[in-house]
Amino acid sequence: MQEMLFCKAACYTLILNSVICGLIRWFHMCRPYNLNPSYFYPSRSLVTVSFLCYLLLTPYLLHYGSPDTWLFTKSFLLFFMPVFGTIAFRTFFFGVTSRWIRNYIVLLIIPISIFVGLFVLACIGGNTIDSYGGWAEVVVLLASSALAVKLVCTTRWLFRMITEFVRGEYSNEDDFPLVFAKMVIFIPFAAWLLSLVVFFVDSHFVNACYFLVMTVLGLAITILILHPQRKDCEVITKDIEKEAIDAKAVTSRNNQIPSSVKDNIERQIRDIVEDERLYLDQKFNKTVLAERLGTNRTYLSVVFRERFGSFYCYVNTLRILYAISYLEQHPKATQSEVAAKSGFGTTKTYAKVKKLYEAGELR
Cα–Cα distance between 210 and 215 in angstroms, integer? Predict the structure, then answer.
């Protein structure tokens, strides 16, 4: 009886903690990071949904003695950790393309079907699994192992990226959260291995202890990711704040700038940025351009808003066009090579901007 209460309490604690962490992750964004959440919190939606997925463990609280419910409960993290780890790493560090999502969904069809079937049986709380002998557990292990292969591949790619940055093989490290990557790279795979051990031990008590470990880990990760894990957050934050100040100043000064001055600034921008290809410099920003032109950021903001849409769209459009041209000349070039040659800090940024450009949203 005491063991049952302890196991249920551990499960309830994990569920409650996960829901709270999910809500905090969704609603909590410190200023000024909330001005650009897609950059600072690229996996925010995924993390929120992932935390809420722990609600699926509720049948364990209702049907503790059911073999069907027990199989689903001890299998939950075997399915969850590989999927979460793979998508989280892909979203945060690499950028997820629509093609990759389609391919991964196809890969997930069979495991998801098995997972859904186990969940339905867990909700019913019967003893259907026993009629299949040990085959049900074999199927679970095979499905989970298939998902783990993708996690291993993704972890290996991230490890290679970390190694390349450490060795200085990238010309710009500003957009890559190196310290954060080192901290989390092996967590999903380690959690999956631990889930595998718990599955084979087949003990409610051991599973409850594992739930408590995951509760602490979930809380720790939530606290860690509340602050954006970017190397140069302070620099980017200052740029965001400057943009906000410029936007306010644009309204008051827009009508005070003669058209001839705007025409001259526009011509100078095109001459310097396009002819000298400054956009290929990964560290090129509006401050650098203002210094080259000998004008202030407010004037630039007015001109960019009227003539180009925005500095971001103008520069990244030029980079994407260059990337397209580079690919035509070098069809065997890798995505990371194209990104670096075109002025993008990472392949993630390149993939994101390319997607916006192809959708006609880069304006």
Answer: 9
* CA pair distance 240, 251, nearest whole angstrom: 18
Minimal CA–CA distance to 181: which of 154, 208, 206, 203? 154
Q: Mind listing the pLDDT tens digit for each residue in 127-154? A: 887 777 678 889 999 999 999 998 999 8
Looking at residue 96, the DSSP 8-state letter turns out to be -
To which H or E segment does residue 155 belong? Answer: helix 135-166
The per-residue pLDDT for 278 is: 86
Identity (one letter) of the amino acid at 164?
A: E
CB-count burial class (<10 Å; 0-12, 13-18, 19+) for 254: middle
Q: What share of the chain is helix, strand, coil (3-state, %, to 5)?
A: 80, 0, 20
Q: Which two three-digit tokens encode residue 146?
A: 């298939």
Tell which residue, 178, 177, 96, 33, has the closest CA to residue 347: 96
Please tell me the number of Cα atoms within 13 Å of 102 on its side-chain side: 3
